[in-house]
Automatic annotation (TrEMBL):
GO cellular component: cytoplasm
Name used for this protein in its record: tRNA threonylcarbamoyladenosine biosynthesis protein TsaE
Sorted UniProt keywords: ATP-binding, Cytoplasm, Magnesium, Metal-binding, Nucleotide-binding, tRNA processing
Pfam families named among the record's database cross-references: TsaE
Species for this entry: Derxia gummosa DSM 723
């Protein structure tokens, strides 16, 4: 992966702080966007996505897609990339159980990475180099009882999102 265009580091002292980051992320999120989530088991990747979806108005369950591989959500047009989009597809992937790079291709998931979609991918390293490059990568690492979050932007779309997230208005 190339060097990031921009980076933002945030300390998350507790689960509520992770939820707040997810809500802040929802406020600046626009499709299309490919987000990769990195971190050990239990680091808060699914919790971050759950908080993001809740802030976007999703009221139903938000399950970890560990066994299903992908969970899809249809969201209101606030995320839309253009005025022509009616609803936005938000796909939450978990590639933890993949054993080889080709598994994600064999599962037929390439088409999910469409122009009007937000794709959030847990365990992207399990798909190897075949997965499209991310716009943003979120790294969650244990820091005592809390977490340390680092967001890296790898595209202009990712940098726009990161800059908006870093602005005081997003806090």
């Amino acid at each position: 992966m190339n060097a990031p265009l921009a980076t933002l580091a945030i300390e998350l002292p507790d689960a509520a702080a992770t939820d707040a980051l997810g809500a802040r992320f929802a406020a600046v999120l626009r499709a299309p966007l490919h987000l990769q989530l990195h971190g050990d088991l239990g680091a808060g990747k699914t919790s971050f996505i759950r908080a993001t979806l809740r802030a976007l108005g999703h009221t139903g369950p938000v399950r970890s897609p560990t066994y299903a591989i992908v969970e899809g959500y249809s969201l209101a047009p606030a995320l839309r990339a253009s005025e022509n989009d009616s609803r936005i597809a938000f796909y939450h992937f978990d590639f933890y159980r993949f054993n080889r790079d080709e598994d994600w291709l064999d599962a037929g998931l390439r088409d999910h990475f469409a122009d009007n979609a937000v794709c959030a991918v847990e365990w992207p390293e399990q798909a190897g180099e075949l997965l499209p490059p991310p716009d943003l990568a979120l790294h969650l690492d244990y820091a005592g009882d809390g977490r340390h979050a680092r967001l890296d932007a790898f595209s202009e779309r990712g940098r726009e999102c990161l800059n908006a997230l870093a602005s005081p208005a997003a806090a």
